[in-house]
Structures are given as C-alpha cells and as structure tokens.
Amino acid sequence: MTSSNNSNKDIGNDNSDMDNTTPEKQNSLLAGIIERASKSGIGRKKLNPSAVESAVAKNMADIHNSPTKLRLAFLGGGSFGTAMANLAARNGCDTTLWVRNKRAVKAMAKTQTNKKYLPSYKLDDRLKYSHDLAMAVKDKDIIFIAVPGLAFRETLKSIAPFISGQSIVSLTKGMEKDTFALMSDIIKDELPEVNFGVMSGPNLAIEIMKNMPSATVIASDSEPLRHAVQAALHSAFFRVFASDDVKGVELGGALKNIYAIAMGMAAAYDVGENTKAMILTCALAEMSRFGVEAGANPLTFLGLSGVGDLYATCSSELSRNYRIGNMLGRGMNIDAAVKKLGQTAEGVNTIQQVHEKATKDGIYMPITHALYAVIYEDKAALGVALHLMEAGFRSDVEFVMAHDHSNATLTAQMKSSNSHTEDEKDDTDSK
C-alpha cells in the first residue's frame, strides 16, 4: 500500500443551499474550502530518514516477505496495545509487549492471556513479555506506545536514554491535561530527533481479537515508516491504510471520544435513530471545524480516522466513553462513573481541553460546550440537551454555509433559557 494525497477537484459544484449568498461570497467560501483542505498537503517539511528507517525502505520487499526482520516493542498492556502486539507477533514480527507490573508480565507469559483486559482470548505463542523498559525498547525498529494519555510524556522521558534510531508510533488517543498537547506534540517535545507516526481508526480491541474485519490508519510524514507499519500489522482481517495528515488523523481519534460520551448519554434516554443521526452529523461538523483551525485537512475527517472511528465509538457499548456517557445520562456523577468503569475514558479530559480551547479561540462547538456544562458545571443532562436544541446548529454542512451564531451567542442563549427554566420551576414550587 502507498499513501495518496487527497484531491479537492470535485468539491461542491452544487451550491443550492447558498441561494441567498452573492456569487462573490460563494466563490470566496469555496476558495476558502479548497485552501483549507489542501494546505496540509502542500509545502510539508519532510523529515530526514534515520539509519533504521533507511534500512527499512531499502529492504521493503524483504520485510513484506519475511516480517521477522522487523523488531517491535509495544508499551502498554491495555486492550488495544495487547491486541496490536498480538497481531504483529502473529504476522511473524519479533514483538515484545512491555507492561509495568512484573506480576502481570509473569502471568501473561505463563497463561498467554491478558486476564485483566482480554481474559477470553489466547495470545500468540511468539509474543514476548517484559517489565524491563530498557530491554523492551533497545535495538528495536519501531516502538508503539499504547499507554494512557496521562502517562504518555512520562513514558517518553523514561525511554529517551535508550533511543538510538528507533521510530515511535503513538496508539494513544487524546490530549494531555492542561497543555492541549496531542501525543505527536509530546513526541516532538521529548524526542525531537525521532521519526514518528500516529495510528488511529475504528479499532475496538475485542473485535480485532475475534478476527472481525477491521482497518486503521497510520499517519506519518515518513513514507518508509508508513510502509513498515503496514508490513508489521496488515493481515487478512486487519487493513492498514496510510495518510500524511498527522494532525487530522490524531484529532479524529481524540475528538470522537467527546461525542461517544454524548451518544451514550442520549442512549440513556432511549432516543430514536433520528436523534442519533443528528448527533453524529453535528459531531462530524464540530470535529472538522476544530481540525481546520488546528491545521488539519478537513477531508481527513471523512475517512476511517474521522467518521469511521466516530461511528464505531458512538454505536458500540464496548466503547469506554460511550459507557461513561450512559452512566451520566442515568444520573450518576462523573467521579462515580469513572470509578465504576475502572478504565481510562480519554473523552472526559478531552471535553475539558477542547471546551477551553474552543472558547478561547472562538471555535463553534455546541455539543462539546453542552457536555462540559453537564460534567463540570453539574447541569442536568436533559435540560442541557433541550437548551441545545433551542440554541444551537444554525447551518447544516460544514464549510458550505457560514455560521451566524458564535460561541458567545450560544452561551448567552443557553444561560437565558436555563434561567427561564429555573424561574418556572420556582413558580411551580411556590404554588
């Protein structure tokens, strides 16, 4: 497989939704779309390949025929990290799964199962295990990092002394608390000389372990690295597509967690298919709107790492974020819901980060702001949803019509509606 640049030649020839817009403004809007859609693929600075990467490129045919030449480390023994390590080992790669807990490593090596996260699935006999970080990452070709976002920077700091040409691929979806840094940003901060990529897509670990047909996206500026990841993980049941839009692919994986919480919350109220479709469509608009402001190609959000991951996460009860939202919709507070889940739900932190960033930069994201009000301002979910229906969503397809309502207007409308509801409640209570 090879990567391909997105084409923007067929964007919006039918502007029937813009009848009330002058031709000059129509042309301006379309020009803006094309410019935004193409800017991430033009003038991209290419990284100088490392010695390891050059060897991978030179021997690419041999890698595909004999993937044992690829030496891989997977850091993090959660469900997804384990599933990807198992897939690589099954493909014949020299694969080590690193887990911090020594007892857990011994148990996995003995039973060939990850009893905590994937208890019902036998892991490949060729998969190796280690709790020694230095031993796990030394002399490897690619290091895949699948630890929670809160531990990502610490993990990079820990492996820094042992880096001697390895490439890094992030499997972690989310943003660092308080900094708004994506995992690629943290890699550039901590390991600036390292070639890196990010992987994201609709990748529910249990379905991958069941050999249900699935796919993912590896995004990197480095074509040899993209090819190496494809060689390591591609199989009859798992396809690996390539992209050079690192920012867009990574944002898709991070932002979709927000809307999985919203969908889980909606499911608690037994909403219909119309409501679910509305949430998904508006969520995609928010994601692409935010992505463009961050420098991503909006067309990336129409791919696997965007709408694909959004759909899978928002429609599956296997999703941790969906389950968190469902518990919130049933009246549980956020602390109790997180405790009951027992795993990291990246969307909770992402809501706070994106709400603050969108508010600061004036990015119109009504669903995100509504979820923030529920989780961090203790507002009733149903009341917030009703206010959102009254105040939000003034245009349909993103980048076709300009939005006529800002964040400030939305906030004022919701507060006004909330005050009106509270006044009615007081009147009722006094009678």
From TrEMBL:
Role this protein plays: Catalyzes the reduction of the glycolytic intermediate dihydroxyacetone phosphate (DHAP) to sn-glycerol 3-phosphate (G3P), the key precursor for phospholipid synthesis.
Keyword Lipid metabolism among UniProt keywords: yes
Organism listed in the record: Psychrobacter aquaticus CMS 56
Pathway where this protein functions: Membrane lipid metabolism; glycerophospholipid metabolism
Domain Glycerol-3-phosphate dehydrogenase NAD-dependent C-terminal: 245-380
UniProt keyword annotations, A-Z: Cytoplasm, Lipid biosynthesis, Lipid metabolism, NAD, NADP, Nucleotide-binding, Oxidoreductase, Phospholipid biosynthesis, Phospholipid metabolism
EC number: 1.1.1.94
Domain Glycerol-3-phosphate dehydrogenase NAD-dependent N-terminal: from-to ranges: 72-223
PROSITE patterns in UniProt: NAD_G3PDH
Entry-linked NCBIfam families: PRK00094.1-2, PRK00094.1-4, PRK00094.2-2
Gene Ontology CC, one term: cytosol
A molecular function GO annotation: glycerol-3-phosphate dehydrogenase (NAD+) activity
Record-given protein name: Glycerol-3-phosphate dehydrogenase [NAD(P)+]
InterPro entries per record: 6-PGluconate_DH-like_C_sf, 6PGD_dom2, G3P_DH_NAD-dep, G3P_DH_NAD-dep_C, G3P_DH_NAD-dep_N, NAD(P)-bd_dom_sf
Pfam families, sorted: NAD_Gly3P_dh_C (PF07479), NAD_Gly3P_dh_N (PF01210)
